[in-house]
């Protein structure tokens, strides 16, 4: 079983790849049976089960932004899971609806829970 330092380093690799739009690097941190859920105000807004679905979701979401950055504010290990808090900033590449136009900067804070298997990330739940 990996320790908190290993989990933190793995999450840091995941965030670095995410920020760089490095989808192969992102996938390299994930277990083949990864599950992903994104919750906004308690509502499920995106999900993926397995690497193929996660890759497709990552490619779609990368197309929405010209730049993006998640900055780790807090890390804690909670049993078999790790919890983080992040600040997020992204510049829209395309219009996403009323009030969300290309060139606008989106800023928010969020939380994520990570589960691990075989030294890789096997579960991600993002909440904002």
Overview of the structural elements:
The protein is α+β, with helices and mostly antiparallel strands and 128 residues long. The chain has a single domain, classed as Roll (Nuclear Transport Factor 2, Chain: A), CATH 3.10.450. It contains 3 helices and 6 strands; from the N terminus they run H-H-E-E-H-E-E-E-E. The chain has helices at residues 4-19, 23-27, 51-62; strands at 30-40, 43-49, 65-78, 81-92, 105-117, 120-127. The chain has a 6-stranded mixed beta sheet, with helices on one face. The mean pLDDT is 94.
Mean of pLDDT: 94
Biggest pleated sheet: 6 strands, mixed
Number of strands: 6
**Count of alpha and pi helical runs:** 3
User: Radius of gyration from the CA trace?
Assistant: 14 Å
Across the major sheet, the strand order is 2-1-6-5-4-3
Element string (H = helix, E = strand): HHEEHEEEE
Percent of residues in beta strands: over 45%
Q: What structural category arises from helix and sheet content? A: alpha+beta
Distance between the termini: 29 Å
User: What form results from the Cα inertia axes?
Assistant: globular
What is the helical fraction, as a range of percent? 25-40%
Identify low-pLDDT runs. none
Topology-level CATH name? Nuclear Transport Factor 2, Chain: A
For the record, the CATH architecture stands as Roll
Number of domains: 1
In CATH, what is the class? Answer: Alpha Beta
């Amino acid at each position: 079983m990996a320790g908190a330092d290993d989990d933190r380093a793995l999450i840091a690799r995941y965030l670095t790849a995410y920020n760089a739009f490095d989808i192969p690097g992102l996938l390299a941190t994930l277990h083949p049976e990864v599950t992903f859920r994104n919750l906004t105000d308690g509502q499920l807004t995106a999900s993926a089960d397995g690497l193929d679905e996660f890759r497709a979701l990552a490619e779609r979401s990368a197309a929405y932004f010209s730049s993006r950055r998640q900055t780790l504010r807090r890390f804690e290990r909670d049993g078999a899971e790790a919890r983080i808090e992040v600040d997020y900033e992204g510049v829209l590449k395309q219009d996403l609806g009323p009030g969300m136009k290309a060139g606008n900067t989106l800023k928010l804070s969020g939380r994520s829970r990570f589960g691990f298997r075989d030294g890789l990330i096997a579960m991600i739940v993002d909440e904002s």
